[in-house]
Every structure is written in structure tokens, then in C-alpha cells.
From TrEMBL:
Aminotransferase class V domain segment(s): 24-390
InterPro entries xref list: Aminotrans_V_dom, Aminotrans_V_PyrdxlP_BS, Cys_dSase_SufS, Cysteine_dSase, PyrdxlP-dep_Trfase, PyrdxlP-dep_Trfase_major, PyrdxlP-dep_Trfase_small
UniProt KW keywords: Pyridoxal phosphate, Transferase
Cofactors: pyridoxal 5'-phosphate
Recorded catalytic activity of this chain's protein: (sulfur carrier)-H + L-cysteine = (sulfur carrier)-SH + L-alanine
Single GO term (MF): cysteine desulfurase activity
Protein name in UniProt: Cysteine desulfurase
Enzyme Commission no: 2.8.1.7
Keyword Cytoplasm in annotation: no
Organism: Uabimicrobium amorphum
């Protein structure tokens, strides 16, 4: 069980008034708020032991190195992986671009097939478009049903001859949770590698990459109580070993000669230059924080918020965009003839922060024939009272537009 009152004490940002109303933050799919312990860990690093890692033979450099390595261990434990398989990147986008530019560049040829889906975030489409231009492979898209779930009837057909299936675990627009284990089985049976975009999954549910069985798993720190500027690429050790580095520079080498270089062992091979040390340490603390609350408690609390919100939205006659059976607390909706930007602006007056736009999923906007949606997304520190404030705000939106129309 989540003790909201106690948990909310950890988030000073939630205790302010916005436009004279209690602040309600429902844009968690975009980025989460940060608990004090994470902010303090970052400050502590800068105040007490700011130094580069893996280099200095002096006290505070050793402290920084130990904290950085520890953060990697925490993340590895969190997702059921070994530390050397966990690469620090700047976020999900960077992780996917790493796979595209290293594994993809090395393994994809003209006429090969990459399978994506219509519900991918642009960060799991554009890197493949960029690479496709260079290499000339084909991209097949799994389609999305009216209810927001992935059409999997033709999964085996689409995977036939594919080299890579790259799919989101949870949709950032629809909240749909995809059956990734089933997708992995089918993809592997067809000889394809599988990359899962876990940006919207890791913050909200217990993840075990070995259980999922995929080959790569990417996510961002800032959506899971960590700071911006840090993310993770997990990959199978042997696979990462076989891949060339993506970025070249300091710290990723073994030897550098006039005409060639050799590269460091994992994970350093993929961590060129001075890394996001403070952010990685902050992410490690965020992982501790989430584990203390318990991922199962987080999932259950958000499930309850989602059910309550969906029920209350019914009375307002809004159209929920996609509402798959297996879903998380990301709710995209449309209100008859009212533009999402107007909804968002009016809600802001009421102190409620939600998002309006295409959410970096233009394929989905086209699929559902809308230019944009209004999206409310919850995290474990949100409450039923906040949902009431949000619904009241929507009632005001309806009122105002009734008057002007
Ligand atoms: N994939 C999904 C499903 C996302 O929701 C996001 C962030 N909105 C990303 C990828 C990109 O994450 P980042 O901007 O942290 O790289």
C-alpha cells in the first residue's frame, strides 16, 4: 500500500500553488518529479566529491568512481542483469541510437527487414529511418487496433526473415502494455534480435530483462525519479561484446596507436568521454527509492488511479483514445470539438499540468485521425483527490465551450 501523504513529503515541488490552486502534476509520462534524496545525492556529489571517474589516483576520484560503479550495480540488480551489461547513456533516445549505429550498422544489409510498430515513439522510428537511408533495409510495421492494442495475428508473418524487432513495452500515448515475452518468442523463432523500448515500463512495473528474454532493453532515468541526462542500454553480454563501439574517445580504449586503436572491455567500450557522473549516481539513488516503495505497490496504486479516472471521465463524455485491456496510467482523450491545447491551457489555470500534442507518436495520431490528444499520466505520488481536481477542471472546460459555442 502507498502512503500518499508520507510519500508526497519527499517531493517539495508538489506542495506549491499554481494559479492559486493546489498543483496537480499529471505529465509523468513526459518526465517524473524527483524526490529529495535524489536531488540531495546530486548536490552531495558536487559539494563533496566532484571528480572524474576511472582516472584519478586521489581520494575524491576514488569516491566518485565507487559511487558511479555502485549506481551501475543498483540498476543491474533492478532489472535482473549483470553490471557489465548495463551501459550508461543519456536516455532512451541515445540507447536506441547506439543500437542502430553499432549493431544495426554492422548487421543490417540492403533488403533485410526491421519490424517496428505504429505505436512507437519517434525515438524508435527515426534512428531506423536514418540508418535505412544509409543501408537500404525494409521496415515493416505492426499495426494498432481500434482499442489501442497491437495487432499480433500477423506477427509471425511480419517477422519472417526479419533481423530485428524493435518494439515499445508500454505506449507513451495509449498506455497499452504490450506482451513483450510473446513478441520475443516469435521474433527469436524467426531468428530476429529484439530491442524493447522500456521508457514507460521501468518506472511503473518490476522488470526482469532475462525473463522477458529480449536482446536489448532501453530506458530513461528521468521518468523514474532520476535526473535528466542519464539512461540505460541493457544488452546481452555476448551481443555487446560482438558490437563495435559507437562513439570513440577517452575512456573507451585499450590502446591507441598511430594507425589503429583497440577498445576497452564492457561496459567502458560504450561509454566514451566524461560521463554523466552526477546523473548516474542520482539514478542509483532513484532505484533505491523506488525499490523501497516497492514496484508492485507502485503498479497497484497507479492501477487504482487509472480505474477511478476512467470511471470519472465517463460522466464527462470524453473519447478515450485506445483503451486496451492491459494498460497503465497514461490516458489520452479527446473532447468533442475542443482543441487539446485549449483543454491544457484551461486546466493549467486550475493548477493541473497535463500534456497536449502528438506525444512524439505521429503514426498514432494518423491512425486515430486526430491532430493531437490531451494526455493525463499518473505516478505513485498522485492521489484520488488530484483526479477529482482534474475532473472538475474538465467540467469547467466543457462549461466554457458550451457558452462560446
Ligand atoms: N520511448 C518512449 C516510449 C518514451 O515515452 C520516450 C519519452 N517520452 C522515449 C522513448 C524517449 O525518451 P528520452 O526522451 O528520455 O530519450
Amino acid at each position: 500500500m502507498i502512503d500518499s501523504t508520507k510519500i508526497r513529503e519527499d517531493f517539495p515541488i508538489l506542495h506549491q500553488k499554481i494559479n492559486g490552486n493546489p498543483f496537480v502534476y499529471f505529465d509523468n509520462a513526459s518526465t517524473s518529479q524527483k524526490p529529495k534524496v535524489v536531488v540531495e545525492a546530486i548536490t552531495d556529489y558536487y559539494y563533496r566529491y566532484n571528480a572524474n571517474v576511472h582516472r584519478g589516483l586521489y581520494k575524491i576520484s576514488a569516491m566518485a568512481t565507487e559511487a558511479y560503479d555502485n549506481a551501475r550495480k543498483k540498476v543491474a540488480d533492478f532489472i535482473g542483469a549483470a553490471p557489465q551489461e548495463v551501459i550508461f547513456t543519456s536516455g532512451t533516445t541515445a540507447s536506441i541510437n547506439l543500437v542502430a549505429n553499432s549493431w544495426g550498422q554492422e548487421n543490417l544489409k540492403e533488403n533485410d527487414i526491421v519490424v517496428l510498430s505504429e505505436m512507437e515513439h519517434h525515438s524508435n522510428i527515426v534512428p531506423w529511418h536514418l540508418l535505412q537511408k544509409r543501408l537500404g533495409f525494409k521496415i515493416h510495421f505492426l499495426q494498432v487496433d481500434e482499442d489501442g492494442s497491437l495487432q499480433l495475428d500477423d506477427l509471425a508473418e511480419k517477422c519472417k526473415g526479419a533481423k530485428l524487432v524493435s518494439i515499445t513495452h508500454v505506449s507513451n500515448t495509449l498506455g497499452t502494455v504490450n506482451p513483450v515475452e510473446e513478441i520475443v518468442k516469435t521474433a527469436h523463432a524467426n531468428g530476429a534480435k529484439v530491442l524493447i523500448d522500456g521508457a514507460q515500463a521501468v518506472p511503473h512495473m518490476a522488470i526482469d530483462v532475462k525473463k522477458i528474454g529480449c536482446d536489448f532493453y532501453a530506458f530513461s532515468g528521468h521518468k523514474m525519479c532520476g535526473p535528466t541526462g542519464v539512461g540505460i542500454l541493457w544488452g546481452r553480454e555476448q551481443l555487446l561484446e560482438s558490437m563495435p563501439p559507437f562513439l570513440g574517445g577517452g575512456s573507451m580504449i585499450d590502446e591507441v596507436h598511430l594507425d589503429y586503436s583497440t577498445y576497452a572491455q564492457l561496459p567502458n567500450k560504450f561509454e566514451a568521454g566524461t560521463m554523466n557522473i552526477a546523473q548516474a549516481i542520482g539514478l542509483g539513488v532513484a532505484v533505491d527509492y523506488l525499490q523501497e516503495i516497492g514496484l508492485d505497490n507502485i503498479t497497484a496504486h497507479e492501477q487504482q488511479l487509472t480505474e477511478v479516472a476512467l470511471e470519472k471521465l465517463k460522466s464527462l463524455d470524453v473519447q478515450i483514445i485506445g483503451n486496451a485491456q492491459n494498460r497503465v496510467g497514461v490516458i489520452s482523450f479527446a473532447m468533442n470539438r475542443i482543441h487539446p491545447h485549449d483543454i491544457s491551457t484551461i486546466l493549467d489555470h486550475e493548477g493541473v499540468a497535463i500534456r497536449a500534442g502528438h506525444h512524439c507518436t505521429q503514426l498514432l495520431m494518423r491512425k486515430f485521425a486526430v491532430p493531437a490528444t490531451t494526455r493525463a499520466s499518473f505516478y505513485f505520488y498522485n492521489t484520488i483527490e488530484e483526479i477529482d481536481q482534474f475532473v472538475k477542471g474538465l467540467q469547467k472546460v466543457k462549461e466554457m465551450f458550451r457558452r462560446v459555442s
